[in-house]
Amino acid sequence: MSGSAADDIRHKWPDRSFHWTMAVLVVVLLGTAFLPVLGLRFDWVPIHWISGVLLTAAIVFHLYRAFLVHGIRPMLPTGHDLRVALGRAPEDGAVKYDLNQKLYHWAVAATILVLAVTGCVMLAKIDTPLWRRDPSILSDRDWGVVYVCHGAASLLLIFFFILHVYFAFLPEHRRLLAAMVLGRETWRRGA
Amino acid sequence: MEVFRFSKNVWGQEMLLGMSWDLLWVPVAAALACIAAHQLFRLTSRRS
């Protein structure tokens, strides 16, 4: 018996919108962070901080969805996930995310949270139309720690980003890619 | 290869500036290594 069209939706449109908003902002943030390092000179700071603020707002939206709409239970790794990953238990078709997806999600979540928190602190170092810079909120040593955390997390994010793109385009994961674009796990309408 | 970047403040004290960007190739190389390992795993598990 087939369910309704709504039952076939893996990711609802607010969650897909969050994903692609985050994807675009992460590309912009990584580009504005590292292209100047690679020698491409442009006024990257305004683009970087505005994208960072937008990403922080998107994260707040995602946290609202995660805690108050979906609940975080579907994303928590379980002993059964581990047994399935080790081949000691059969795959459960009703489970939305496997162990690798859950671990990847939490690793990226921790990385992005470090970036967002340190990035928000670093906003105190720049003048914007909304506030004046005030670097005196931290000592030089503490600013160094903030910059190290932000830099280390951004390097880690490059690693996760490349792996995410690779796994998204694997043939066996194309249904997941379709679900993140269209909501349903197929590119064909009505399939 | 340096892990961190340092500078000197007006009093000549060493200040931590952040991560060294010499490390930029490390996450790219690590990701490519993981991809190669995964492709190898797929190939060997398909044959067995």
Please write out the topology.
The complex is a heterodimer of chains A (191) and B (48).
Chain A: H1 13-34, H2 44-70, H3 79-85, H4 99-122, H5 140-168, H6 174-182
Chain B: E1 4-8, E2 14-19, H1 25-47
Antiparallel strand pairs in B: 1-2
Key structural traits:
heterodimer; A: 191 residues; mainly alpha; 6 helices; B: 48 residues; alpha+beta; two-stranded antiparallel ribbon; 1 helix; 2 strands; rod-shaped
Explained architecture:
The complex is a heterodimer of chains A (191) and B (48). Helix content of chain A is 62%, strand content 0%. Chain A is mostly helical and 191 residues long. Chain A is elongated. The two termini of chain A are 14 Å apart. In chain A, 15% of the residues are buried. The model of chain A has no long low-confidence stretch (mean pLDDT 92). Chain B is an alpha+beta fold and 48 residues long. Chain B is built from one helix and two strands. The model of chain B has no long low-confidence stretch (mean pLDDT 93). The chains are: A mainly alpha (191), B alpha+beta (48). Chains A and B meet through α5 of A and β2 and α1 of B.
What is the gyration radius of chain B calculated from CA atoms? 20 Å
Write the element-wise H/E pattern of chain A from the N-terminal end onward.
HHHHHH
**Secondary-structure content class of chain A:** mainly alpha
Largest interface: A-B, 19 and 19 residues
Spatial strand arrangement across the major sheet of chain B: 1-2
Helicity of chain B, in percent?
Answer: 40-55%
Q: Specify the biggest β-sheet of chain B.
A: 2 strands, antiparallel
Distance between the termini of chain A: 14 Å
| Helicity level of chain A | 55-70%
Query: Which whole number gives the mean pLDDT of chain B?
Result: 93
- Counted beta strands of chain A: 0
Helix count of chain A? 6
Query: How confident is the prediction overall: mean pLDDT of chain A?
Result: 92
Shape of chain B: rod-shaped
**Termini of chain B, distance in Å?**
42 Å
Give the radius of gyration of chain A: 20 Å
Task: Flag low-confidence runs of chain B.
Answer: none
Q: What composes the largest sheet of chain A?
A: none
Strand content of chain B: 15-25%
Low-confidence stretches of chain A: none
